[in-house]
Specification:
heterodimer; A: 116 residues; six-stranded mixed sheet; four-stranded antiparallel sheet; globular; B: 112 residues; mainly beta; seven-stranded mixed sheet; 11 strands; 54% strand
Chain lengths: 116, 112
């Protein structure tokens, strides 16, 4: 079974609108962390936001927020007020304590296109 | 966050040859990681490199194909040996702690 599932291969949004990128995960480890990355066409991986399994509040970083629903094992990324520069590939990833925090497991990604 | 640089940024190589990718960090780190991203795919961990010990390789990756050096706490190299077109990928070095993980700019390798 896939550990990280991103069901949206592509998403379209108009500039200034909010968009939610879906991510569900599968783990039996009570201690884990969830990450979101942005990969523009240049290929670099840009760290956006982190949510720990024991964090009580949803993580936020500027226009990025993480809608963490632990019981449903989902960690959706919300981008508010989309900008043209947000067009990129977005990856959800998970780290599990049982693996010694040495491995990030990635989903297949969602391509986001922001139109004017 | 640490600044991570990689050399080369991209290369085009002939099959059967080898390429060594360098990763430099501006601060001392214990663990460094090497990832591969094949075209249109997600990232896959190749190995974990600790200074002073042999690298630990993930399933499907072997030292003969991807030898790694870690001579000090700020530097690592990954060699892609005896390359074939299937090795065409972006190779990224990475480091981090439990709640953050940063990546270098990547090396885009094309094997003809």
């Amino acid at each position: 079974a896939q550990k990280i599932t991103q069901t949206q291969p592509g998403m379209f949004v108009q500039e200034k609108e909010a968009v939610t990128l879906d991510c569900t995960y599968d783990t039996s480890d009570p201690s884990y962390g969830l990450f979101w990355y942005k990969q523009p066409s240049s290929g670099e991986m840009i760290f956006l936001i982190y949510q720990g399994s024991y964090d009580q509040q949803n993580a936020t970083e500027g226009r990025y927020s993480l809608n963490f629903q632990k019981a449903r094992k989902s960690a959706n990324l919300v981008i508010s007020a989309s900008q043209l520069g947000d067009s990129a590939m977005y990856f959800c990833a998970m780290r599990e304590a049982s693996l010694g925090y040495s491995t990030l497991t990635f989903g297949k990604g969602t391509m986001l296109l922001v139109s004017p | 966050s640490a600044v991570i640089s990689q050399k080369p940024s991209r290369d085009i190589c002939q099959r059967g040859t080898s390429l060594t990718i360098q990763c430099q960090v501006d601060s001392q780190v214990t663990m460094m990681f090497w990832y591969r991203q094949q075209p249109g795919q997600s990232l896959t961990l190749i190995a974990t490199a600790n200074q002073g010990s042999e690298a630990t390789y993930e399933s499907g990756f072997v030292i003969d194909k991807f030898p790694i050096s870690r001579p000090n706490l700020t530097f690592s190299t990954l060699t892609v040996s005896n390359m074939s077109p299937e090795d065409s990928s972006i190779y990224l070095c990475s480091l981090g702690s439990y709640n953050e993980q940063f990546f270098g700019p990547g090396t885009r390798l094309t094997v003809l």
